[in-house]
Amino acid sequence: MSLAEGVQASVRYKAYASGTIASNAQAVSASDLVATGGQTLRRVSSSLKLAKDTYAANEIRTDRQLQDFRHGVKRATGSISGELSCATYFDFIEAACRGTKAAAITLGPSALTSLSADNTTSKFTAGGGDPVALGLRTGMIFRLTGMSDADNNTKNFLITGFSGGSNRTISVYPAPDTMTADTSFSLVTTGKSIYVPSSSFVNRKYGIEIYNSDIDISRLFTECRVGGFSLKLPATGIGTIEVPFMGRDMEVASGGSAPFFTAPTAETTTGLIAAVNGLLRVGGTVVGVVTGIDINLNLNPSSDGVVGQNFVPEIFLGLANVSGQVTAFFEDSTLVNDFKNETEVSILAYLTASSAVNAQAMSIYLPRVKFGDADVATQGESGQAITMPFQALKAAGTTAGDDATTIRIHDTEAV
Known about the structure:
Blueprint (H helix, E strand, L loop, with lengths): L8 E7 L13 H5 L5 E3 L3 E2 L2 E8 L12 E15 L6 H8 L8 E2 L1 H4 L2 E4 L4 E4 L14 E5 L11 E7 L5 E5 L5 E4 L3 E3 L3 E4 L10 E7 L4 E10 L1 E7 L5 E8 L1 E6 L19 E9 L2 E2 L3 E9 L22 E9 L4 H7 L4 E8 L8 E11 L3 E3 L7 E8 L15 E4 L4
Antiparallel strand pairs: 1-2, 1-15, 3-5, 4-5, 5-18, 6-13, 7-8, 7-12, 8-11, 9-10, 9-13, 10-11, 14-28, 15-16, 16-18, 16-19, 17-18, 17-22, 20-21, 20-24, 22-23, 23-27, 24-25, 25-27, 25-28, 26-27
């Protein structure tokens, strides 16, 4: 008999047509999830399992032995961990934000009249319209075509802010080539973006299958809600992501019933994200001494049992609590004073999969952040490090290009 190998296991997932959970009935996978479709997921590991409450008898017995042990309410718990790549985990990031991803925006001369560029100030200037009213936001990534200066075409530009009348001055990274006003161009925010909204929250649930092909056994975790995500972005290394889940049950199948998903879409082929190729801005200033940044969104999912059924009636999601930590070499008093003075800053991380000008890329924008500590460890003979945990807060949404949100993520390859 074969023994299961990790390399032979695949993870597949699919969203249910409805994100609603019926409190007194479980979904039927064959009809509510449906075996066709699905997506194969790249991963490093999974800790998904079926967990049950258990309880033992407390009788005091003369034979001094335990008489009974019972199973109670069940639920699926655990997480999936992987290396960060564009598009791969965007469905789960969208689910954690509980919003709806925004489609790409296309703007041309009819919307902006013209577009000029200045390398020294790292800005584009529109001749008309209002870029913010037309949908552009800080943290979005756009590409241009049709510009008279070819070096400004098909290149990623990260929006870092807006200024001027009608928000027509668009600050970007990297700096564009200087050029006079061009009246023939197309500006496209390639991919999708998502942020945590203030209302109209969307409930989503997924079926997640782990199929061990070498022993032909499928475990399908049903009605799973995303509980958030954790991103770890080292200065030199591949970025990682961990997505926690909480679900209602697990179905086991083998033989002709396995796997459940009959023809899932193949894994994404996007490149792995490395923070060393990108950019980090804290408080509007590029920071070149950061040695790592962690960003966590925790929805604190919960599921309490009820009398009369052995599955939970709902998986409740709490507020979107975004926190994290920045570590950097101790260079000056700026970050220390940000903590000491309780200064609110923004954090904008731009992450790419290569050094190409049109690299697959992600951006993460936290418009309002407070540091909770500024710990400088005085030790050793080499560079001294400062560790700064932070709490992200909901922005007022009154700054041009900022939504009233805690976090915005843009992914150039998301569909």
